[in-house]
Amino acid sequence: MLATVVSTWGSSPRPVGSQLALRDDGRMVGSVSGGCIEDDLLFNYVGAKSSTWAQQTTPLKVRYGIDAEEAHRFGLPCGGTLELLLEFDPASADLQMLVSTLEAGYLVCRTVSISDGKASSALSSKPDELHFDGKTLRHTLGPDYRMLIIGAGMLAEYLATMALFNGFRVTVCDPRAEHIGSWSVNGVRIVTEMPDDAVIEFRPDRRTCIVALSHDPKLDDLALLEALHSEAFYVGAIGSRSNTANRRDRLITYFGESEESLTRLRGPIGIYIGSKTPSEIAVSVMAEILAVKNGVTLPEALSVAAMKAQ
Fold first, then answer.
1. pLDDT, mean of residues 41-62
2. Cis peptide preceding 204, ω within 30 of 0
3. Fewer CB in 10 Å around end: N or C, the chain?
4. How far apart are CA 82 and CA 16, in angstroms?
5. Residue 307 class from Cβ within 10 Å (0-12 exposed, 13-18 middle, 19+ buried)?
6. Residue 181, exposed/middle/buried by CB under 10 A (0-12, 13-18, 19+)?
7. What is the DSSP letter of 34?
8. 127-156 tens-digit pLDDT
9. What 3-state DSSP class applies to 58?
10. Which pTM was predicted?
């Protein structure tokens, strides 16, 4: 069964578009709430074989939190209500093709007919809000957020770990054998080509962030140049205020950039939390990346440069 949050009222633990896949043996992937609704879906679909869900073939709309008592029972805050569309036994071949297309980095619009449960998927040119009118569900799904890290030092390992548990697909690029040879974080793609070539091959899009951590201008500068002229939502480089200023001067003097074209280049990266160790710096950088990803404008007072200037 595939459950999709199609609408919410009041406060809701998960936004519209959130999904949960539930297998006949009870294995679940994804989430539509804080846990209580998942338990109820599991009970009704797997534990209660005599329920109407056992014979259901077409999509079913269900609502949780109709009143304050039910909202409290299902852990919905402040009397929230959410509505789910349940698809029973969706075609696994179609879902596998959908997943493969998303993993290839494409945006996909999935359409479901409520009358017969038939679903189709097509490439989409732009993100769009979920549409559900009781007859048709149109759900635009994007590929994973991706992070490309230049430089394979200890800071990169901490940042990669945090990016992975925040749902990013992570690639680390470092042509220096002595650095990449000691890499210890699993689940990360490793490339050893020159970073500017790696950025081009990465095809950065609006769900991509690129972070230069090598401290080597020969590696960082050309990669940042390529990244700045891409759609990446975040482009930044580690370094002190003086190193950051020197980098900007190099890009303007030798590569024809301007103050205007360097507006998107972040540095020193991170938000100011008084961090000193690689692990704390990684927290600072990851927090800034997530803020930019989520459309949050951070006050200038939180920037590392502003705080260091005091």
1. 80
2. no
3. C
4. 9
5. middle
6. exposed
7. S
8. 789 999 999 999 999 888 999 999 999 999
9. coil
10. 0.76
